[in-house]
Amino acid sequence: MQTIIEHQMGKTFQAYLAPCHRTYSCIHCRAHLANHDELISKSFQGSQGRAYLFNSVVNVGCGPAEERVLLTGLHAVADIYCLCCRTTLGWKYEHAFESSQKYKEGKYIIELAHMIKDNGWDHELTTRDKNMNKDMFTSSAQKFQVKQTGKTAK
Ligand SMILES: [Zn+2]
């Protein structure tokens, strides 16, 4: 009994985003990270390639802030990590020292290498494709069988 309670408590920290929304999840543990609605920009660069700027994220912990000189100037940034699997995902802009970069304050960068698109992205299309393929497969298999039977008869 004790074990079950602890297990449930351990699970409660994970936030779930509305399943009807297009969401981004942690590629390592599939915890939800952000809604597509919260995406500000796709044109950021992380240490491992492309990175996205989000207005808000979930299931993400924040390390201590430190000053770093980025391509766009001096910023106070903090590493962010997935609360479920502890993988470092990107960083948070705590403070921007240049006025042109102020819009990034309090926003989150997640590197594309750590994210996977989840829910309603192309679910309808995928379902339709699957049905189409199944239909095509069934009809061609039937034709094939007929041909085979014909050949065997000759
Ligand atoms: Zn994770």
Describe the structure.
There is one protein chain. The protein has 2 helices and 9 strands; from the N terminus they run αβββββββββα. Residues 1-11 and 123-154 have low confidence and may be disordered. The protein is globular, with a radius of gyration of 24 Å. It has helices at residues 2-11, 123-153, and strands at 23-26, 32-35, 39-46, 49-54, 60-70, 73-82, 88-96, 108-111, 115-118. The chain has 154 residues and is an alpha+beta fold. Helix content is 27%, strand content 39%. Strands 3-4-8-7-6-5 form a 6-stranded antiparallel β-sheet, with no helix packed on it. The site of zinc ion (ZN) has 8 residues, from loops.
Summarize the structure.
The protein has helices at residues 2-11, 123-153, and strands spanning 23-26, 32-35, 39-46, 49-54, 60-70, 73-82, 88-96, 108-111, 115-118. With 154 residues, it is α+β, with helices and mostly antiparallel strands. A six-stranded antiparallel beta sheet has the order 3-4-8-7-6-5, with no helix packed on it. A three-stranded antiparallel beta sheet has the order 2-1-9, with no helix packed on it.
